[in-house]
Known about the structure:
Helix content is about 80%, strand content about 0%. By secondary structure, the chain is mainly α. The protein has one domain (about 1-90, about 140-200). The protein has helices at about 1-10, 15-40, 45-50, 60-75, 75-85, 85-110, 115-140, 145-170, 175-195, 195-200. It is flat. Helix 1 runs antiparallel to helix 2 (about 15-40) and helix 5 crosses helix 7 (about 115-140).
Amino acid sequence: MQPRLAEALSTGDRLTANHLYQTATGWLVLVTWPLHLMVITYAPAYLGLFGDGYQAGGPVVVVLASAMLVATGCGMVDMVLSMAGRTRWNLTNVTAALALMVALDLALVPRFGAVGAAVGLAAAVLVNNIAPLVQVGHALGIHPFGPGTVAAAGLAVACFGVLPQVSAAIAGTGPAALLTAAAVALSCYGVGVWRMRGRLGLLR
């Protein structure tokens, strides 16, 4: 995908660049959002696999996984910005994200500990994705939110967001409930991807 995207941007073919960017983002959402959504719902059970002392880190996992939902939903936006020749913008974004993380860590870690550090890192991740997203939209006129991306996100939320939440409310968040919910969600997801393959535009 990257060489084709670089070629499209270098020749000014915005239509092809936009299509490639949206297709890549759709695949990224399709593959990663189920994991992030399941981790958010079953953070205590997931962390419990490493020992009882790790379960207290549930809020940290939820904060970071939520930030990654946004980051993956933006696709490889920083790479798109660099391929378009805006490397200085990328450097500015990274510097701003780092400065924000350090400032938030200094303010929050002494009071909130690991959760404060997670908030600082999540804020940096958001800045490092949302800022270039706005920039590529303004400078290049492209964005990652094509029909495939939207369909993949909706399907992932339905199967790995809503269904596990309902399951957790009924059966709890223990290991057995986690495995059952994961199996049901994965089955529904597979059927959904197959039936929506045309709308997703990813499985041609």
